[in-house]
Amino acid sequence: MQITLLTHSKELVRPTNTGQLVMACHGLTVERRVWQRNQPDAQLLACMTQQPSVLLYPSDDAQPVNFSGGYEHLILLDGTWQEARKMYNRSPYLQALPAWQLDNLPTSQYRLRRNQQAGALCTAEVVIALLQMAGMAQDATALQVAFEVFNQAQS
Predict the structure, then answer these.
(1) Fewest Cβ atoms nearer than 10 Å: which of 50, 79, 97, 121?
(2) What is the domain-level CATH number for residue 51?
(3) In the Cβ-directed half-sphere of 90, how many Cα atoms lie within 13 Å?
(4) Burial class (CB in 10 A: 0-12, 13-18, 19+), 102
């Protein structure tokens, strides 16, 4: 599984960014690209044309996660929910991708930001759920432990 974190520029400097935990997860191939409204990342666009890619985003036409569909490249929007909506709405290339969403999720344990949407997870929690669904239990557990330590240390 290859994961691209498409990160809002404001998220890069926030100490509460859990994308940094995902980047440090040893069992994954993760890259970070910075979202720019007027100039999409050329390497991301090339990657999207070279391999089947899917966006993990709860759009109106999003389907439940399905690893049997041949998608090995997952794109996650890394930012606040308000920023993620802006990124999605202002990026036609993202809207053109097939979209997945996570269903039947537990309540988020992330408590480092206020005004979180009900039913929403932080980036690390999303990746933990994806790893569990993909049968990568050891990597999911390692990221879960790192997330719990991060969540406690930052609060």
Answers:
(1) 50
(2) 3.40.1280
(3) 14
(4) middle
